[in-house]
Amino acid sequence: MRANCSSSSACPANSSEEELPVGPEVHGNLELVFTVVSAVMMALLMFSLGCSVEFRKLWSHIRRPWGIAVGLLCQFGLMPLMAYLLAISFSLKPAQAVAVLVMGCCPGGTISNIFTFWVDGDMDLSITMTTCSTVAALGMMPLCLYLYTLSWNLEQNLTIPYQNIGITLVCLTIPVAFGVYVNYRWPKQSKIILKIGAIVGGVLLLVVAVAGVVLAKGSWNSDITLLTISFIFPLIGHVTGFLLALLTHQSWQRCRTISLETGAQNIQMCVTMLQLSFTAKQLVQMLSFPLAYGLFQLLDGFLIVAAYKMYKRRLKNEHRKKNTRCEEGCHNKKSTSPKETGAFLEVNEEVTITSGPSMPMDLHTTLEPPGHISSGT
Questions:
Q1: Is the dihedral of CA 365, 195, 293, 74 positive or negative?
Q2: Coil, strand, or helix at residue 303?
Q3: 265 strand-pairing partners
Q4: CA-to-CA distance for 166 and 32, rounded, in angstroms?
Q5: Which CA distances in Å does 139 have to 143, 148, 172, 274?
């Protein structure tokens, strides 16, 4: 399997400006405005999500990084392997196979943090995993790409976008650090910021998705095979991540978090790497894959959130019915006073309804099936 770029004139660094697509085919100021606005909005979003993080729990994940280790194994163990197997199974062209592999080797994207919040996952673990996978990408991306392309005999050297990785780290860690500080100093105000951020995050995802499709219309092709892979790849990531977390006895809250972190990849980093490494002619066959992957991972995320909300509502309704029966039975017992009964129901209702990263243990207790073994932090 070969991707030819032997002459210096064929390489992106030496090509003329007309030969280079600017990622999605947009021009000058429009692309700059879109990039800057997206970066600012993402930074504000990460600040709001950081308001859900408690320093004590964050430090516990760092001191006992079992959940982080499982997440990194999924990110740089399962995903590159799945990408390689998909490329071989579908007999992809060299350029297309490399695009799939690069996507599999990328670190987790910040989109996973938004979906983790919506499914009441472990936000401390989610943000820690995203940060750790981005740092680990500095070494794991070139290592994975080298190992999996050994049998392909590539003549083209793949360029790791270290600058892009550094920018991602800055845009991730600084806003989150401010959010953690706000949550520590002003916990009541941080809850309001968090709710606003969740709504803004949903709007941002939709805007970025629509804008990406419109601005990148020249980069799409009608290759059914690539579209098929871009559809099943994030699903495979979500399922395998969840199963591995389950096999390592993680809590249900952590299983949801690791599942979303595994299937959600950093699309911008993949596109940047392909732009730096290949010619305009080769990019025509490659860019449609990360774009389609980004759209399908959004769709998968929304479906997972919808399924979780339905499951949570069903549990809440069952709990209410059980409380109603309990209330009727308790009224018939003289040993239990009405005040005590009312207090009991009030506490249980609060445990059932209260959700979100601010009370992860309550939700974990409500949604975890009996007999499930959870690992300690």
A1: negative
A2: helix
A3: 108
A4: 19
A5: 6, 15, 19, 18
Distance CA 143, CA 165 (A): 16
What distance in Å separates the CA atoms of residue 283 and residue 276, rounded to the nearest whole number? 10
Q: Where are the beta strands (DSSP E) in 22-174?
A: none
Q: Decide: 312 and 367 in contact? Cβ < 8 Å.
A: yes
Report the C-alpha gap between 184 and 87 in whole angstroms. 47
Please tell me the least confidently modeled range out of 170-174, 306-310, 371-375: 371-375
| Interatomic CA distance for residues 150 and 116, integer angstroms | 36
Count of helices and strands (H, E) across the chain: 16, 0
Q: What is the pLDDT of residues 313-353, one digit of tens each?
A: 998 888 888 888 777 776 655 444 444 444 333 334 334 43
The whole-angstrom separation of Cα 78 and Cα 236 is 10
User: What confidence tens digit (pLDDT) does each residue in 273-314 have?
Assistant: 888 888 877 787 788 888 889 888 888 988 999 999 999 999
**Which tokens hold the place of 271?**
């596109």
Please check whether residue 296 is in contact with residue 231, taking contact to mean a CB–CB distance below 8 angstroms.
yes
The count of other CB atoms within 10 Å of the CB of residue 352 is: 22
Specify the amino acid at residue 142: P
